[in-house]
Design goal:
- It is globular, with a radius of gyration of 23 Å.
- The strands form three sheets. A five-stranded mixed sheet has the order 1-5-2-11-10, with no helix packed on it.
- About 25% of the residues lie in helices and about 20% in strands.
- It is of the alpha+beta class.
- The chain has seven helices and eleven strands.
Amino acid sequence: MESMIIEREQDVTAAALAAMQRTADPRLREIMVALIRHLHGFIRDVRLTEAEFREATAILAEMGRLTTDTHNEFVLMSGSLGVSSLVCLLNNGDNGNTETDQSLLGPFWRLNSPRVENGGSIVRSDTPGAPLFVVGRVVDKDGRPVAGAEVDVWHASPVGRYENQDPEQADMNLRGKLTTDADGRFSFRSVMFTGYPIPTDGVVGRLLKAQDRHPCRPAHLHALIFKQGFKTLISQVYDPADPNIESDAQFGVTRALIGKFVRHDEPHATARDVATPWYSLDHTYRLEAGEAVLPRPPIK
């Protein structure tokens, strides 16, 4: 075993790398060796002071205290630094080489959304807003329809709040689970949603303020699509009319995820109870071959 007695600052990195190299698991060894190289290199690049180091460790401790069953400050920070999107794009679309419909899960996905028949509504309490009709199509990488896929959908309300944030909404409002038909299609009715600010009462809020960044996410529709033989697709479709479409605080908007939300000022052809204006979205989701695994819900 090499000596770990330190004579100069360069010896610290060499000793730490030697220790990491003894990690038995090959993938953990690869990760830890790279972590030491980059972390030590970062500290040298910025000439991190002792006071800044103490502040950094205090911030990490604070983020741990802020992470609860209903809020995850680490996930919020990962998004605010672009890490969540980077990990997503590196691991999808042929390992980052092609466009992908994969996106961020977000903090508000819930298990066991109520079943909805195609064409049904996911509105479960009085939710004023312009009517929205969504038609989705699920296909494989060659454009062939994927029948029998489970499609979990959810979105914020027209005032920018998910139902588990808002006591005014019924449980599971604006959530539903559908199944694609023989043509890979699913459809449902809802109300047009809006963007919203991420929580700013913690470490992430202070960072955004220090950088003069707004905390808003542009309006988006979530979908989680599950089918054996395919990697579970976690997607968000964004409204291009949102004023923050080009400055998402979580760096989640990709070109492939910008939807075509169409405004209609004429009466709906079949739904006579629909006031004008109403909106429609027709969007295609592409699945990649892989293992169908559900993520762990970010909060309870």
